[in-house]
Amino acid sequence: MLRIKQFYLEEWKWFKTKFLKVFIITLIIIILAGLISHFIFIKNTEKLQKISALVAEGVLKDNPELERNIQLFFSLFLRNLKVTLVTIIFGFIPFLFLPMLGALRTAVMVGLITSKRL
Fold this sequence. Notes:
The protein is extended and about 55 Å long. The protein has one domain. It has helices at residues 2-18, 20-43, 45-60, 69-91, 100-117. The protein starts with a helix and ends with a helix. The model has no long low-confidence stretch (mean pLDDT 80). By secondary structure, it is mainly alpha-helical. The chain is 83% helix and 0% strand.
């Protein structure tokens, strides 16, 4: 048990020295993208309605009769799986912030959803 604890402590020290700064900058950018998109969609309700309709159409285009929750769950799960695979593939391209595009898209979608609900 002591070896595992020591291993994780060493990994945490390595993360703090190598990646913590990039992680915090990325986190701030994603939070700002979500907040900015939230306020943009609140001020532009017509854009909010258009984009919401496009998102709903994209979710329902495969199966327009998604009435049961389990069907909706699997449809959303498969879409998220595809996005995850694309993000992983972007990770192999040697450009530091290319994988962050998926996270930014998700942050904008969160801003869209929160502006519609509030």
